[in-house]
Write a structure and sequence with these properties.
The complex is a heterotrimer. By secondary structure, chain B is an alpha/beta fold. Chain B has eight helices and ten strands. Chain B has a domain of 96 residues: Nucleotidyltransferase, domain 5 (2-Layer Sandwich). Chain C contains 14 helices and eight strands. Classes of the chains: A alpha/beta, B alpha/beta, C alpha/beta.
């Protein structure tokens, strides 16, 4: 017998979501065709963005009906979701939700709710946004489904442990911790065995919570799809090796959503195929993400979600584009190492060897490689006030990058989510001075 | 005239306040002056002056505030305990006291018997204190008497988002340059400060809210705080003297 | 003082020294290998060198000061450094000094498992212990001897028992908090036998009747700095009757069951998960709150002081839960935040005094 809730969930995903997105588009169209601003420094907007909005709208709409229909897991961005998907889990990504809240400038309000309870404002903006949203019930996506299982992986930071423990206490649901020891140099065998053992424990717990069981073929299929999606995302990023780059680094921050939140689904891969083709076409026609690309930059660390547009414009007006970022690149690396022939074994390697789980020499190597491959003239290292794992070492990295590669490097002080931690005028002034130093 | 029974001295970082009380706790005489670095000398002089004013001899002395331990021969208690006692003497019931001074802000939850049930202080950073307004209004050259009418007359508040006094100052200068109305900016500043103070008060604000301290003399601030807390705020009589009164009550 | 002691240990006992960052690490292994552990909690105060500038100001002072200290050669009296995988900042510090300059001597990491006890974690912990021992063998000059490890485990059990005795019978100890904490913190760098001797001398002074009359408070937090905090509490009429400092009480392990010392590694694993809950080990938050409540109730404390250092994520994420837990019980709570200063600020002094005044008044009217 098919559960009513399950029907709602499926209808939301297959019919309502796309219909809603179409409705939004029609609304915009009937408002009258807006002539592109003559003085905009940007190239023509990407067609794919429409589809992106549809995908993400559908994802969040499905979420509203997920609890009670299918097993729900809240997961960290670096978690091997491939293991959960074949069991029918709907995966919620609090980090993605928090980014969305930040873009809409809702973080101060959500954070204030829990700061009154004693949460320090210095803590990770994603965590404060998420916990604030959970405690207040406020969210711009209508409603987030209650989790049946919380899954965090320490490959992005240790902070997720403290954050997800708090969620576990609030929701009173099991928390699965995938503890991935940090890699100093190379990963010793017993560290890898530990991760492997935990993945096997994960399967047991996930099967128990979902009441489902995945065959090896079903798991292999999802892994294959996820790997393909990762490679497609990588192909999208690689288009920016061209001069001019066909899109901006900031576009990348938005188009990354599917590989993070929908990895392992056909919809994700279809989307990136479409995006890649559009970008490749722009490269062939010499169409740039910005009209007048004069300087190419590397961006390190998380985006400044609440000021993506502002910063993008500030740069584009002076002919600067971010052609590569360590953040978007991370999603083209991890998932490319997973192997349908050995899902668990390959997940051990893939999910431990990510930029934030490896030492500074590795980080320098990645930044250097990106800088060379994408022919950058300079780099901006976002010194993210509430993200220590990503920001520690940047002072040294700045020195080494400029010395080894002969490029100009700027350390930009901001935050990924909370505008209150950002002194906009001062930061923009310094960034402008940095850009002026190129002439 | 009633007989004087105790003296209370509140040595704040900006001003030194002193009172002399009678047996019923009423203020017979008071004195307020800027705090001197040589607190011991100032305290002696002020106490002597008050005693002369009412013709009293040696009396027990209670002290509070930043310089409380340097008032000779005084029983020193923190400004939390003294403000609670002083406020309770003036209102006779429990509630929430918000004391806003030049350089610190305190929120004290008073139990029905006048006991301190809980307290919170914001004294590490100027942005949560009277200093915030002082610095920025000074920069904008708005004289104090004009502040409340200016704020009341504003059609809307211009939000000031910086949480640091220094950055807020430069943000305000930008806003003025962008043509934002001065009255809206000044209202925005008050709102900003009120929000921070309300956050200090936390989630449960039970009972009546009272206000003391020099900043309570700014009607615009009282109104902004009432708005932020979602309830009326009653300014205590002689708001600057509440701490000194409490110190005097504690002297015996 | 420490430098002289380290030199003496080397000269008289042939013991090398290892500087250890906070919080949880297998002391028993170092002791068994004849290595003196010298813990580095800062040191407090302004960073001792400009090297601190290699870390942004939003990194906690414990880590910034440690960077300044290590990179300026102040720790050159020791032979190696050990970085437990406590948090993102210590994780980053380890690679920063090892790989980008600041520490040229051997550097080791100890990555203890997170979360509840699971088969994967227990098996991993045993191997991580052995891996650390293998790594330290070069510094120590000889591999780890199992018999010596067994002895070391038992020695550290006696040290813990002594510490527990002093902490659990605080009111019967005629020693003020400043002196007690100074004594307990010497365990961060003394050879365990020397520390045990001092602890035993203190235990010998325990009285049959309570001698401390002050109002009792419980403290939970990271590290008791500035130490002047205790003098202030004492002057205000309070005494610390329950301790959950990461640096102190949270590392005093009171195992529920009797231990079988046949395999010292298994004993160490059992002890690891029997330790008081700590966010740096990702202990369940609910379990931690229950532990704190139990500690509070058993001690008869009248109030709780939560004493944290700015930017310390593992600690700060639990503050709201601690506040709520104690508010629900009607217990009074003071939140203090520091930046690893050496002096207690006027503001903190006022807060402490106001808190003790508040709690004392409540005690009198109770």
């Amino acid at each position: 017998m098919i559960h009513r809730r399950r029907i709602e969930f499926e209808v939301a995903g297959r019919v309502v979501g796309p219909a809603l997105a179409a409705f939004e588009r029609a609304k915009k169209a009937t408002r009258g065709k807006r002539a592109p601003k003559k003085d905009s420094p940007f190239g023509p907007p990407l067609e794919a963005t429409r589809k992106l909005k549809e995908l993400m709208t559908t994802h969040y709409l499905k979420g509203r009906y997920a609890d009670g229909a299918v097993p729900v897991a809240w997961v960290t961005s670096g978690f091997p979701v491939e293991i959960l998907r074949p069991l029918g889990f709907h995966a919620v990504y609090p980090e993605n939700h928090a980014a969305l809240c930040s873009v809409q400038r809702l973080v101060p309000e959500l954070s204030d709710v829990i700061e009154k309870d004693g949460y320090a404002r210095d803590l990770c903006a994603y965590a404060r946004t998420d916990i604030g949203s959970v405690v207040s019930g406020k969210t711009p996506v209508g409603r987030l489904p209650r989790p049946d299982l919380l899954c965090c992986c320490t490959n992005i930071c240790q902070t997720v442990l403290y954050w997800y423990r708090a969620l576990a206490a609030h929701f009173q649901v099991p928390l699965f911790v995938l503890d991935t020891p940090f890699i100093y140099g190379s990963a010793p065998a017993h560290h890898q065995q530990y991760v492997r053992d935990q993945l096997e424990e994960l399967v047991t717990i996930a099967e128990k919570v979902s009441g489902a069981h995945a065959t090896p073929d079903e798991l292999a299929d999802v892994v294959r799809t996820a790997r393909e999606g990762t490679r497609l995302w990588g192909q999208c990023l690689e288009q920016s090796r061209a001069k001019p780059a066909p899109w901006t680094g900031f576009d990348g921050f938005f188009h990354i959503a599917p590989i993070v939140t929908l990895r392992g689904t056909a919809a994700c891969n279809d989307y990136y195929r479409m995006l890649r083709d559009e970008l490749a076409d722009r490269v062939a026609r010499g169409v740039g993400g910005i009209k007048d690309e004069r300087h190419r930059l590397l961006w390190d660390n998380l985006p400044i979600w609440f000021d993506v547009r502002g910063m993008s414009t500030l740069l584009a007006e002076r002919g600067f584009n971010f052609v590569c970022t360590s953040y978007t690149n991370a999603w083209a690396e991890a998932g490319s190492k997973i192997d349908p022939a050995d899902p668990i074994g390959s997940a051990v390697v893939a999910y431990t060897h990510i930029i934030l789980n490896q030492d500074l020499p590795n980080r320098l190597e990645i930044l250097s490689r990106l800088s060379r491959d994408y022919s950058v003239d300079g780099a901006v290292l976002h010194s993210d006030r509430s993200c220590k794992p990503y920001s520690i070492g940047q002072i040294d990295l700045k020195q080494r990058l400029s010395r080894d590669l002969g490029i100009r490097v700027h350390v930009l002080e901001a935050d990924h989510g909370d505008p209150r931690a950002y002194a906009a005028e001062q930061a923009e002034g310094r960034l402008t001075a940095f850009m002026e130093s190129f002439s | 005239m009633s007989v004087a029974v105790a003296v209370g001295v509140d040595v704040g970082s900006t001003t030194c306040k002193a009172v002399i009380l009678d047996g019923s706790g009423a203020v017979l005489a008071s004195h307020v002056e800027p705090t001197h670095p040589r607190i011991e000398d100032q305290a002696r002089r002020v106490i002597a002056a008050l005693r002369d004013q009412v013709g009293a001899g040696e009396l027990p002395v209670g002290s509070t505030g930043y310089g409380r331990k340097r008032v000779p021969g005084a029983r020193a208690l923190t400004e939390i305990t003294c403000h609670a006692r002083g406020a309770f003497r003036l209102v006779g019931k429990g509630g929430v006291l918000v004391d806003m001074g030049g350089q610190d802000t305190k929120v004290i939850r008073l139990g029905p018997a006048g006991d301190v049930a809980d307290f919170a202080m914001n004294d590490k950073c100027a942005a949560g204190t009277g200093r915030f307004l002082e610095v920025i209004l000074g920069r904008l050259q708005v004289p104090w008497p004009e502040v409340a009418p200016l704020v009341r007359g504003a059609s809307r508040a211009v939000p000031v988002s910086s949480t640091c006094t220094v950055f807020a100052e430069s943000e305000v200068i930008s806003l003025v340059a962008q043509g934002e109305p001065l009255d809206g900016i000044v209202r925005g500043l008050h709102q900003s400060l009120a929000t921070r103070v309300a956050a200090l008060a936390g989630r449960e604000v039970d009972g009546e809210v009272f206000m003391s301290g020099g900043v309570a003399l700014n009607d615009a601030m009282v109104e902004a705080l009432a708005l932020a807390l979602g309830r009326p705020v009653r300014v205590l009589p002689t708001p600057q003297l509440v701490g000194a009164i409490g110190a005097a009550l504690s002297a015996r | 003082m420490r430098t002289a002691y380290i030199a003496k240990q080397r000269a008289e006992h042939g013991r090398k020294a290892v500087t250890v960052l906070p919080v949880h690490y297998p002391k028993e292994i170092l002791t068994a290998m004849g290595l003196l552990a010298v813990e580095l909690w800062g040191p407090p105060g302004a960073p001792v060198s400009a090297e601190a500038g290699r870390l942004q100001p939003y990194v906690c002072a414990v880590v910034r000061n440690a960077l300044a200290f290590l990179a300026s050669g102040r720790a050159d009296a020791v032979d190696a450094a050990l970085f437990p995988h406590t948090c993102d900042s210590i994780q980053g510090l380890a690679t920063l000094v090892k790989d980008f300059g600041g520490w040229n001597r051997p550097a080791f990491v100890f990555q203890h498992p997170r979360g509840a006890s699971r088969a994967s974690g227990r098996s991993y912990y045993l191997r991580e212990l052995r891996a650390l021992a293998d790594g330290l063998a070069e510094v120590a000059g000889a591999p780890l001897d199992l018999g010596r490890l067994r002895d070391a485990v038992q020695l550290h059990r006696r040290v813990d028992e002594a510490r527990a005795d002093l902490l659990d019978h605080r009111r019967h100890l005629p020693m003020d908090d400043a002196a007690l904490y100074a004594l307990l913190r010497r365990g961060e760098w003394l050879w365990p036998d020397d520390h045990l001797r001092e602890l035993s001398e203190a235990r010998a002074t325990l009285q049959p009747e309570p001698v401390q009359r002050g109002v009792g408070v419980m403290i939970t937090g990271y590290v008791p700095e500035p130490a002047a905090l205790f003098a202030r509490l004492g002057e205000a009429g309070a005494v610390v009757v329950a301790d959950d400092y990461a640096a102190v009480g949270r590392r005093v392990i009171r195992p529920a069951a009797k231990l079988d010392y046949t395999d010292p590694f298994e004993v160490m694993a059992a002890l690891y998960w029997a330790a008081p809950p700590c966010p740096t080990r990702a202990s369940d938050q609910g379990e931690r709150m229950r532990h704190l409540v139990g500690l509070y109730d058993r001690s008869g404390a009248q109030g709780v002081i939560v004493h944290e250092q700015k930017f310390c994520e593992p600690e700060l994420f639990d503050v709201a839960a601690i506040k709520r837990t104690f508010a629900d019980r009607g217990a009074k709570l003071l939140y203090l935040e520091g930046e690893l200063e050496t002096e207690l600020s006027g503001q903190s002094t006022t807060r402490i005094e106001a808190f003790v005044e508040m709690v004392s008044a409540a005690r009198r009217s109770a």
